[in-house]
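User: I'm writing a tutorial on reading structure tokens. Could you give me a worked example: one chain, its sequence, then its tokens, then a sentence or two explaining what the tokens reveal?
Assistant: Sure. Here is the example chain.
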Amino acid sequence: MDETTRHGGCTCGDARYAVKGEPIFVNNCHCRQCQQQTGSTSVVNMFYEADRLTLLSGEISRHVVKAGSGGDHVIVRCATCGSALWSHYPRLGEHGAGIRVGTLDDPRSIRPDAVIYAAEKMDWVMLPPDIPAFPAQYSPAELLPPERFARLKALAAKARPA
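And here are its predicted structure tokens:
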């Protein structure tokens, strides 16, 4: 396993976390739900196996909203300032974590693999020409390197009910 460890935290500094290794995938999502949840144009999430993520300090709160699929989308926030730190999405459940790249100490160390829901982006947002953009979702098997796709498949298998 890659020994890279990234650190991040909330706005007030109470909640701090560490995540080990490289992400499985990174999406810049422009869907309307992400716009509403962040109050911004989009969100950039890096997805990991949840067991690679450690809360180092502070307390967190969990907020459940409905995902586009209708399943529960759990947003994990700093209990003090409310900054969104990561989410658990329906397809990966509690086994996977979509960590907000903007909460990293060094967010420039991460670059999206893809822009998703580009059809819902605000008209004035310009997308980088060197990052693949999709009107909605994409097929991870066609975009991710084999070793990262294998991690995604293993994570999805854990999340499926028996």
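What the tokens reveal: The domain at 5-159 is CATH 3.90.1590.10 (glutathione-dependent formaldehyde- activating enzyme (gfa)). The chain has three helices and ten strands.
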